[in-house]
Amino acid sequence: MTLTTFLIQCLNALQYGLLLFLVASGLTLIFGIMGVINLAHGSFYMIGAYMAYALAPWVATVLGGGFFTTLAVGVVLAVLMGYVLEWAFFSFLYTREHLQQVLMTYGLILVFEELRSLLVGDEVHGVQPPDFLTGSIALGDMMSYPVYRLFISGVCLALALAMYFVFAKTRLGMMIRAGSTNREMVQSLGIDIKFLYRVVFAAGMAIAVLAGMVAAPVSSVYPGMGSLVLIICFVVVVIGGIGSIRGALLASLLIGVVDTFGKVLVPQASGVLVYVLMAVILVYKPDGLFKAG
Amino acid sequence: MRASKWIFVLACFAALAVFGQVGSRFGVDLATKIMVLAVFALSLELLVGMTGLVCFGQAAFFGIGAYATVLLAPPDGPASILVLLPLCMLLAGAYALVVGALSLRTQGVYFIMVTLAFAQMAYYVVHDTPLGGGTDGIYLMVKPSLGRWLDLDNAQTLYRFTLACLIGCFGFLALLGRSKFGRALAGIRVNEQRMRATGFSTYPYKLAAFVISGALAGLAGFLFAVKDGFVNPEMMSWHMSGEVLIMIILGGLGHLRGALIGAFAFVLLQEFFKSEAVFGEFAKHWHLGLGLAIIASVAVLPRGLVGIPGQIAERLRGARAGSLRTAPGRGGHGAG
Amino acid sequence: MQLTWTHLARQSGALALCAMGASLALAQTPAKLKVGLMLPYTGTFASLGTAIENGFRQHVNELGGKIAGREVEYFKVDDESEPAKATDNVNKLIKRDQVDVLIGTVHSGVAMAMAKAAKESGTLLIVPNAGADAVTGAMCAPNIFRSSFSNWQPGYAMGEVMAKKGIKKVVTITWKYAAGDESVKGFKESFEKGGGTVLKELSLPFPNVEFQGLLTEIAATKPDAVFTFFAGGAAVKFVKDYAAAGLKTSIPLYGSGFITDGNLEAQGAAADGIITALHYADSLDTKRDNAFRLAYAKTFKMQPDVYAVQGYDAAQMLAIGLNATKGDATKAAEISAALGKATIDSPRGPFTISPSHNPVQDFYIRQSGAKENKKIGIASAKLADPGRGCKM
Which spans in B253-331 are helix H? Predict the structure, then answer.
């Protein structure tokens, strides 16, 4: 492998890792901060992708907007949906065991997939990115790098910074972190923990939906896309340490590197490398790379 | 267990025995499949319900049992059950030993994910290497037998053999639960730190439970391979591990008959929602019905299907108590 | 009334006539033909399952709802593209519904289980898509037929085309699973025979769709062309990623037709100019195909694709076979003989059936552009799958 190729592969690894972080960060939020195992996270991602596809014509005709307007509309819808979902389905789960959450979110996956089938159908679709982002930057004589992928990486980094800022530096973040360690105490201090959790859940869903929308032009939109992403997201969260955003970021980048270079150097085993990585890390650091925070 | 619960379980087995005689060809086939899945579910119940270890990689042991059956069976004649069956269980148990030794260092959610990781590794070995015959799966050409009397190629014989395995498995786990070993597992499930604080070394017990569970899952795999005559890497996928976990949660954790009920309920619910006789054209969207049923069961049945008689009794008691009624059983149910 | 002989004669005559009429009427209504459709109605391949069923139904409707005089009754099972549940699902059709004919399926792993069950029970099986070589190879049987293709065929056809074009160095890329392996093997066979070399065989685990690293690898290897096999959502992504990486203009992309079939709307401009080989194309412009497409679009409000044609032809094959045995689906040997001699008048063009029961058909070279896969030539005429391992 020449130096140029190696550098380009590093760029690929970085970009894939950042995309993974974008998708997994919503899960870190809900799983890490609220302690709720949400198997339907992949479905939120799928909902985002299908929204990017289905809302675009409506946004264009009714609102006269383009890609970014669609993103905004999607996020607003996601926040509303998340709020309602949490109130209807999740709020009674906090006191139940993890496995009840597993069972219920498994049911939700089935429901979402089928609703998608009923509302939008089972076809494969493509989503067009905005015109000014469709170009490519030439890298050497053979290859060029799509500008849109750089845009995705940019969005991921911005989101990571925003999340870090909110959790570490704001009162809201402090309340959320407190609530994740001791729910009853926070309640007895007069903070409305139910409302807080609803906000966090809505935010987590919105991030997942945003990830789906932003990734849609690159990943295309098809049935079953949710379950592919779900397992990798859990791996990211677990390697990084549950509740740690720093950890999720590092874990995503690690997986990006292992996956990209694995495919090129060890194609026979590339499928399993990510899991070997996780097993090795957990054997040495049984609680993941970082503690919560 | 109270007498009524024993009677329920025995009645189930008796009903299954009778059904084997009178059921249609298809019915017997379906019941065989459910019984195999029930053995699989029981193996997981040992870990999750009795020991409190949530394993998300049970499908690996199941798959190893199934693949061993196919790969070790001679291509032209029937293998001997006496040789093949214990061998499959042994291999599945051996992998469980390895996985357990490495995973039991972790706790909680991390444990769940590490077991998943090891299951994925087994999956990829079978999926991507020539060892497992590739992604399309491999065929079991001739079904094993034991002399002249136990030819598993015969559907009736296979049914009875599976039922015997199910009863044997159930009985074994029931006895295990009552033994000192079982009590130790229960103690680990309720509060492991306390057990360790009393000087009890919990690791060997957890590992032993893991290996037994793996071997039983291997038994289920053997039965599945014999029934279908065909194995495929998807048997080891995390979807399979997820489904068996769903079965025991649906049925009710902490009770052996919960695994039994869960397996039956899960498969029969699917059949119900898929049937065109009931839903007509909408049967295509059976996932929706199944999903809603599962969500409803979580909302209404916090203890799983096994808790239905208990919940009804509480309601009746609560209604009778009138103004002296306290908050119903939520949270009053045992540990874990 | 008077009990005269003439009266009696008239009465008994009338009775006799009634009895004869009744028995004639009973003889006139043969048992319904139970057709079991085992297709993916949920999951990634759901749209393919629907297309196949639509195609099948279209031909049955053209025949007035009857095949060989028997009215067709449908039984459907969703196979979810899950091989672990396949045997149970197919047994639902065979043992519970007791179907006379099985039609299915898309996923090769599921089709393998179906083939075994069909072979063991003797039920007639027509596979309208799954290309697993083993179905008409090692697991072949007198009662198992295929109306689609074997994975080997499109790859082999493309290899011939590329070798003839003078392309020397190729990199292949596909998923690491049976269909991908068999497709590439078919390609290698004809391409190397034609004097070409396969520099690298790249693969990624199924169903992974992160292609960037491998695209970089392709660029670094600098082949003359790339041969690929992907289907469904992954095909859309691959073609778009390939174009976005700037490779479309520097290294021409070739492939088995599945990378563009049904995906052009989603792929957009990224798919322009890709050359593929398949046994069907969008603009064959034959009377047969035009009539088929018009009727299909009118009935189902969508354009047909190769999957719909395969379903349609499965119905044609069934009709030919059953007409030869007067509706008896158990006479596999006679059905086999009838289909072996027949030429099926398909929208894709006429094709025959090989001794291992796979279609012997023309493969077209297609170029994608302006939302259709336009036929620009014939890649391989009357290409037959070698049916390796088939002992019938």
Answer: 256-274, 276-279, 286-300, 308-321
| Closest CA relative to residue C76, chosen from A218, B286, B334 | B286
The alpha-carbon gap from B291 to the nearest alpha carbon of chain A, in Å, equals 4
Residue % of chain A over a pLDDT of 90: 19
C82 → closest Cβ in B25, B230, B234 = B234
A195–chain B nearest CA distance, Å: 21
Residues of B in contact with A117 (CB under 8 A): 285
Residue in chain B nearest A100 by alpha carbon: B298
Is residue C9 predicted with pLDDT exceeding 60? no
What average pLDDT does the structure give for chain B? 87
Identify residues of C whose CB sits under 8 angstroms from chain B CBs. 41-42, 76-78, 82-84, 86-88, 91-92, 95-96, 108-109, 112-113, 116, 120, 132, 134, 139, 176-178, 181, 205-206
Model pLDDT for residues B39-69, shown as the tens digit of each residue? 999 999 999 999 999 999 999 999 999 999 9
pLDDT for residue B32 is more than 80: yes
CA nearest neighbour of C274 among C152, C372, C176, C134:
C372
Q: Note whether C242 and C270 are within 8 A (CB).
A: yes
Q: Where are the domains of chain A?
A: 15-137+145-225
Mutation target vs C (from A263, A272, A273; most C CBs, 10 A cutoff): A263
B296 found inside a domain: no
Residue % of chain C over a pLDDT of 90: 57
Q: Do A124 and C262 touch (CB under 8 A)?
A: yes
- A91 — contact with chain C (CB < 8 Å)? no
Query: Is the distance from CB of C73 to CB of C34 less than 8 angstroms?
Result: yes
Residue type, A240: G
Least-confidence region, from A27-41, A109-123, C234-248: A27-41
Alpha carbon of C92: minimum distance to chain B alpha carbons (Å):
7
pLDDT at C28: 60
pLDDT confidence of residue B322: 62
Q: Note whether B228 contacts C92, CB cutoff 8 Å.
A: no
Specify which residues C368 forms β-bridges with: C373
What's the CATH code, domain C152-278? 3.40.50.2300
Q: What one-character DSSP code corresponds to residue A125?
A: B
Q: The tokens of B1 are what?
A: 């267990």
Tell whether B235 lies on the interface with C, counting CB pairs under 8 A: yes
Indicate which CATH number applies to the domain containing B103. 1.10.3470
| Cβ neighbours, 10 Å, residue B10 | 11
Residue pLDDT, tens place only, A198-245: 888 898 899 999 999 998 888 778 887 888 788 888 889 889 888 788
CA angle (C271, A51, A145) in 5-degree steps: 40
Tokens of C304: 């047909």
pLDDT band with cut points at 50, 70 and 90 for residue C295: very high
Comparing CB atoms, the residue among C216, C222, C267 nearest residue A8 is C216
Let me know if the fold of C33-149+283-357 is the same as that of C152-278: yes
Q: Does B105 contact chain A (CB < 8 Å)?
A: yes
Domain count, chain B: 1
Q: Predicted ipTM? A: 0.85
Residue B276 lies in a domain: no
Cα atoms in the 13 Å half-sphere on the side-chain side of B307: 22
B120, B127, B250: residue with CB nearest A275: B120
Q: Give the domain extent around B224.
A: 3-260
A55-99 residue pLDDT tens: 888 888 888 778 888 899 999 999 999 999 988 888 877 777 788
Considering the domain boundaries, does residue B307 fall inside one? no
Going from N- to C-terminal start, the domains of chain C cover 33-149+283-357, 152-278
First-last CA distance in chain A: 39
Neighbours of chain B (3+ CB pairs under 8 A): A, C
**Cβ contact, residue pair B124, C84, below 8 Å:** no
Looking at residue B109, what is its pLDDT?
Answer: 80
Give domain C33-149+283-357's CATH architecture: 3-Layer(aba) Sandwich (3.40)
Angstrom distance (rounded) from CA B116 to CA B310? 34
Band (C270; pLDDT cuts 50, 70, 90): confident
